[in-house]
Amino acid sequence: RDTTPGKMFSLCSLSYLGAMLASNHALQHVSYPTQVLGKSAKPIPVMILGIIFARKRYPWAKFLFVLMIVLGVAMFLYKDSGQSKKSDSDSLIGMGEILLLVSLTLDGVTGAVQERMRSDHKTGANSMMFNINVWSILWSAIGLIVTGEGIAFLGFMERHPSILAKMVTFGLASAAGQTFIFITVSTFGPLTCSIITTTRKFFTILGSVIIFQNPMNSRQWIGTVLVFMGLGLDSAYGKEKKHVKK
């Protein structure tokens, strides 16, 4: 029987939605490459807030290996100023950057709550997925009512009824993907999941480079080496040693 308190599911879904909203709204102030670059640091707040709120402990080597992965992904995904549009503001920290920081912080909160579910209540993947999504529907419904976007959405569906089939397809695909995400969270922890989702874009682009023989500059090669070194070292030496009682 699942003993996870409903408030944990509620908080987790709220922080998850908040992170997504902040990240999407950041695109109004910064370019997409900047947003992707900022979100590549997701494992760092997941680690920090996991330590603070979930009492998680990591070996010091883990911090180094995760930092190598994050830096490698950032170097690989970084677009030179001539390749991407600049943000609306020339200041170092603008509204877009603040929203990205909020998004990353909420990502960390989500990871910390999931870690508490996993460690304190042994919450299963299906239970976690179901309850978090139920609460997400509730929070989203409240948001649609308060902002009035729900009425606008119904009007949009009335004008474009074919969108319903696309939404169903998108929902089914998302549910299938979420199944594996929550299995990863419940089995290996939110930090491992965040590393996987962070490196996903890296491996997608790297795959296109290999398949279509797109050239990479020296910075991207260094980033690639850092990612593979970080992943390899983390796999070999980043695990917390378990003391076996004799």
What does this structure look like?
With 246 residues, this protein is mainly alpha-helical. The chain has one domain. Helix content is 76%, strand content 0%. The protein contains 10 helices and no strands. The chain has helices at 6-26, 32-39, 43-53, 60-77, 95-121, 125-147, 149-159, 163-188, 190-212, 218-237. Helix 1 packs across helix 6. It is globular and about 50 Å long. The relative contact order is 0.18. Mean pLDDT is 88; it is low at 83-89.
How would you concisely characterize the structure shown here?
One of its GO terms (molecular function) is UDP-glucose transmembrane transporter activity. This protein is mainly alpha-helical.
The Rg value, from CA coordinates, equals: 20 Å
Q: Span between N and C termini?
A: 32 Å
Structural shape: globular
What are the segments in which pLDDT stays under 50 over at least 5 consecutive residues?
83-89
How many structural domains? 1
Helix percent band: over 70%
**Main structural class:** mainly alpha
What's the helix-strand series? HHHHHHHHHH
Query: Which strand-content bin applies to the residues?
Result: under 5%
In round numbers, the mean pLDDT is 88
Summed up, the helix count is 10
Number of strands: 0
Largest sheet: none
Subcellular location: Endoplasmic reticulum membrane
Organism: Magallana gigas
Keywords: Endoplasmic reticulum, Membrane, Transmembrane, Transmembrane helix, Transport
Main location: endoplasmic reticulum
